[in-house]
Each structure stands twice: as C-alpha cells, then as structure tokens.
Amino acid sequence: MIRSELIQKIADENPHLYQRDVERIVNTVFEEVTEAMARGDRVELRGFGAFSVKKRDARVGRNPRTGETVQVEEKSVPFFKTGKLLRDRLNGKED
Q1: What residue range is the signal peptide (predicted)?
Q2: What single DSSP character describes residue 21?
C-alpha cells in the first residue's frame, strides 16, 4: 500500500472527513514519526510496532565491482520491530 492508497482508504471509511483533511492528518503523522526519529527518539505504535534508530559503526567495506577496499563512515539507520499483535496476525494466530 502506498501513501495515496492509505489516504483514500481512510477517506472512504470516514465520509464525514474531507479528503484534504485526511491527507493533512496522514502527512502530519509521517512527519512527526520522521522528526522524532531524527532526534533519536523511539516511536511506538501499540499492536503495530516500534520505530527506532540504530547506529552503524564505521568499517572497512569492499567495492563489489572492483574489489577495492573502501572506508564506510558511521551512520544512523532506521529500524522497525513488529509488535506482537501484528506478528501474530501475519502468522495467522488471530484471537
């Protein structure tokens, strides 16, 4: 599902809301999650999962095309851990 499909689905299920308002709500949620992660905060959506940021240390890598060694700098990467409810639902263990 892409962002526009999510917006359309929410708008269809909530006819009392204007589509432009639904779009603003969805965009605000994504922006807040992004900003929180940029600050290094953890974002938890109960039953769905938790977004966090992990640090990857600097290391020596290898260019796969040439085989030459290259220095890879330290970086931050997004990490998502699924919640129990989502994991159970994906594995067909609905209660």
Answers
A1: none
A2: H
19 DSSP 8-state letter: H
Name, in order, each residue with C-beta under 8 angstroms of 56's C-beta and a sequence gap of 6 or more: 74, 75, 76, 77
- pLDDT band of 75, cuts 50, 70, 90: very high
Nearest of 9, 1, 49, 48 to residue 25 by alpha carbon: 9
The secondary structure of 35-62 as a DSSP string is: HHHHTT--EEETTTEEEEEEEE--EEEE
At 56 the pLDDT is 95
What pTM did the predictor assign?
0.77
C-alpha 56/C-alpha 41 separation (Å) is: 16
Q: Mind listing the domains of the chain with CATH numbers?
A: 3-90 (4.10.520.10)
Average pLDDT over all residues of the chain:
94
Asked if 68 and 75 count as a contact pair (C-beta separation under 8 A), the reply is: no
- Find the Cα–Cα–Cα–Cα dihedral 77, 83, 86, 89, rounded to 10°: 130
